[in-house]
Amino acid sequence: MALCEIRNLTKSYPSFRLSDISFSLNAGRITGFIGRNGAGKTTTIKSMLGLVHPDGGEIRYFDLPFSGNEREIKQRIGFSTGAVNYYPKRKIKHIVAVTKTFYPNWDERAYKEYLELFSLDENKMPCELSEGMKVKCNLLLALSHKAEILILDEPTSGLDPFSRDELLTIFIELKNRGVAVLFSTHITSDIEKCADDILYIQNGKIVANCSKEEFAANCCKDGETLEESILRMERDNRI
User: Which of 144, 161, 190 is the last residue of a domain?
Assistant: First the structure.
């Protein structure tokens, strides 16, 4: 079941163009959004969240157009665009106290579980955290209100290998609960670990949008790993 549908999304900048981006996110599926830095992953995600205004295309969640329904939709999705970069000198518990007032579905038990899992001290301030722990803090807020869709931009950036593995395991658990997960990354091993589907972008264009198995069958040469095939495709700049 498609919980989110993106159709012909476009966005132009003086030196970059996002061209006719189309894909869907399905319940109980993890989509790994992969591409090199500057390929268009962040622009796509920010367009999906209304953080930048696309020039064209359609964005729908739960069969509702994003335009005109943004507030209702954002009650049902969780998103993170990196590390916490607001209220750097407020304690985490105070940031949480404000944040949860925006979410009627805030799950205090889930919040406490993720707080413990991420080894976060809610009496600390973001300015006292490492970059990796700041990412975890942002994820804590995104995961604590029963989101049906989770959209994450480079969520494993800055995390040590153990914490990355821990987070990917959480994605799998959320998938098993029927949550649709989209996470962008340039770390191929993260895709191999947990993704069901691959969304691969080059120079602002989607060049692969399929299951991981289909990608391996159609894009990997004999004996190639996923990482080796993507590196080859980046060198060739073509499928």
Answer: 144
Provide the residue range defining the domain that includes 109. 84-144
How far is the CA of 204 from the CAs of 5, 7, 12, 43, 57, in angstroms? 18, 14, 10, 9, 14
- The answer on pLDDT for 85 being more than 90 is no
**Tell me: the pLDDT tens digits for 176-230?**
989 999 999 988 889 999 999 999 999 999 999 999 999 999 988 888 888 889 8
Are 157 and 211 in the same domain? Answer: yes
Strands ordered across the beta sheet of 77-80:
77-80, 149-153, 180-185, 30-34, 197-202, 205-211
Beta-strand ranges (E) seen in 63-220 are: 64-65, 77-80, 149-153, 180-185, 197-202, 205-211
Q: Is the pLDDT of residue 143 over 50?
A: yes
- Decide if 78 contacts 221 (C-beta within 8 A): no
Report pTM. 0.89
